[in-house]
Amino acid sequence: MKKLVIIFLAFILITGCTSQIKKGESSKIYPDAIVWNNTLYGISSEIINKDELGKELGKITSIVQPLPKKTGESNNAPIGSKIYEIVSKPNGNTLAVEMDGVLKKATKLDPVQ
């Protein structure tokens, strides 16, 4: 009986500590990102105010998994999401991405090859 309890607890521990990735959930492993001008930008949860926006640079044209590789691609921002420059940071290191009506900060990570 004691062995049965130990086996049962081990089974619960093993099955409770594993997770499976379901189809279409790969973006949860990778950070939200876009590619603009052949550069990968990571989208943060930081919200940008509308008065910080500069000119509209373009829109997201496609969603790809796990990470975007071409200008206009995203792994989470909906198609049609607008991309803006940020007036206080015109050097291109940060952009604003409109996702479902919320402007989020996107920070430059790496050039895309």
Largest sheet: 6 strands, antiparallel
Distance between the termini: 60 Å
- What Rg do the Cα atoms give? 20 Å
Series of secondary-structure elements, N-terminal to C-terminal: HEEEEEEEE
Q: Which range best describes the helical content: under 10%, 10-25%, 25-40%, 40-55%, 55-70% or over 70%?
A: 10-25%
Please report the number of helical segments.
Answer: 1
Poorly predicted segments:
none
Number of strands: 8
Average predicted local confidence, pLDDT: 85
- What is the overall silhouette? elongated
Spatial strand order of the main sheet: 1-2-8-7-6-3
Proportion of residues in extended strands? 35-45%
Structural class: mainly beta
How does this structure look, described?
The chain is mostly beta strands. The chain contains one helix and eight strands, in the order H-E-E-E-E-E-E-E-E. The strands form two sheets. Strands 1-2-8-7-6-3 form a six-stranded antiparallel β-sheet, with no helix packed on it. It has a two-stranded parallel ribbon with strand order 4-5. The longest helix has 15 residues, at 2-16. It is elongated, with a radius of gyration of 20 Å. It starts with a helix and ends with a strand.
Please sum up the structure shown.
With 113 residues, this protein is mainly beta. It is 13% helix and 40% strand. β7 and β8 form a beta hairpin.
Write the layout of secondary structure elements.
Layout: H1 2-16, E1 33-36, E2 39-47, E3 53-59, E4 62-63, E5 73-74, E6 82-86, E7 94-99, E8 102-111
Parallel strand pairs: 4-5
Antiparallel strand pairs: 1-2, 2-8, 3-6, 6-7, 7-8
